[in-house]
Amino acid sequence: MKTKPPRKRNATKVPYDASKRDGKRKAVADTKPPIASSSTLSVDPLPKPPTAPGKGMVLFRDVCLDVIRKFYPNTKPRNDFDIVQLGSQTKRADDPEALYAWIDECHKSSVEILGREVTEHSVKTLLDTYMEQTGKKPVEDDPLVFVRPIPDCKYSIRLFPGSLSASEYCMDFVDSATGEPVNSPFEHELWSVPNPDTPWLSMPMVGKLRSAERNHGIKQEDIRPGEEKYFLRDGQTCVLMRPGKRPVRFTVPVRRRPELQEATEAVDVLDLPKVVDA
Question: How many domains does the chain have?
Answer without folding.
Answer: 2
